[in-house]
Amino acid sequence: MIHNDVLNQLQLLIKTSAPPLIEVAQTPLEEALWVPGQRLTAMVLTSLPNGRFQVQVGDMALDMNLPRNTQPGDQVELTFVSNQPRLTFALTRDLLAVAGNNLAFGAKPQVTLSDSVRYLGALLQKISDQAETQATPLNKTAPLLSAAPSDIKEFAASLRNTLSQSGLFYESHQAQWVAGERRLTDLLQEPQGKLSPLNPATEAEIAQKNLPVSPGAGAEIAQKNAPVSMQSDGLLAQSASRMPVHGEAVALVQQQLQTLDSRQLVWQGQVWQGQPMEWRVEERGAREGGQGDEEMPHWQTSLRLQLPRLGDVQATLAFIPQGLRIDLGAADAGTAEVMRGAQDKLRSSMEVSGLKVLAMSVESHEKVG
After folding, report:
1. Per-residue pLDDT for 190 more than 70?
2. Which residues, at least 6 apart from 316, have a Cβ–Cβ distance to it below 8 Å?
3. Widest pairwise Cα distance in the chain
């Protein structure tokens, strides 16, 4: 994720400022392991008849289009930009020049971080200090349903609404509201929306006013209502009173950052009275650092329940461009056998719904807890 951010910022700088790019004529057989934004010292080996130069970068000899006044034996500092569609660099001095006319060659740019960025950085550092490898679960004490579902579509809608209204996607939903794709009344049902000064208004008043949730008003409320527990040591305490983040939303903002970093979301709670469930949704592939062009990010979701008759069961669904993979598991061997006998029925049901089932398996697993 950090590498993607660097790449995006670097490409934005290049697009808006257009410094000369240095492209390699032929892609070397050995894959380059540099990351976008990495600075490299290169040695000019020789000039070529076509006006280009052979340059030593690391242990690679590359054919580059350097400035015409370049001489063999010169050392140049390059910044790696991209390896697609071919290896591309920029002269570090050119990037520094377009980033600020007051920056001399080799000088470090003077960067000023906003309070918002410093605050988010402090939250990320706090998450890192906790050394958590998985996303903190979304916990819900009240059951989603009053009883075991008789309508599977109603159950699916309840699960969808649980994630949608969790507050993890609040900023995305704000963008949808601005685009006219989401109602303000729906936005105010999320945890952050419930902290808005517009929340006490009736639905009719909100619809009549059609006003945005004012960040300025939220900042004022945050300053007045920030709890004592928020006044901790370090940067969080210094910036808390200046941030447009309500004190009660700090934990949720941390959870948003953690979800972005881990690419997974975990929900734990009761789906109906006395029936606990663990539900995990995650992006795979990209998070696992797969190699090769065929390794594409895909979504995977899994449910785990302890049912009265079937015992400990779980289902994992992996959504890839070609279709759907289903893996079922049960702690009880008899339950696993029942599942195997119902595989064809489940496959047919999925395909009637428009889902192409690529593979399905049923395995026994050890009981958890």
Report:
1. yes
2. 300, 301, 302, 326, 327, 328, 329
3. 80
SS3 330: strand
Quote helix, strand, coil % in the chain, to nearest 5: 35, 25, 40
Q: Which of 134, 138, 154 is nearest to 146 (CA)?
A: 154
Residues 62 and 25: their CA atoms lie apart, in Å, by 8
Query: Which residue reads 């009637």 in tokens?
Result: 352
- The angle formed by the CA atoms of residues 311, 329 and 361, to the nearest 5 degrees, is 145
The CATH fold of domain 285-369:
Transcription Regulator spoIIAA (3.30.750)
Confirm whether pTM is higher than 0.85.
no
Q: What angle do CA 56, 100, 19 make, to 5 degrees?
A: 45
**Helices and strands: H and E segment counts in the chain:** 13, 13
More confident residue, 195 or 17: 195
Q: Are strands 39-47 and 53-57 parallel, antiparallel or unpaired?
A: antiparallel
Within the chain, all domains assigned CATH 3.30.750.140 are found at 285-369
pLDDT digits (tens, 9 = 90+) for 26-57: 777 777 778 778 889 999 999 988 888 999 99
pLDDT(158) > 80 = yes
Tokens 């049912």 sit on residue: 307
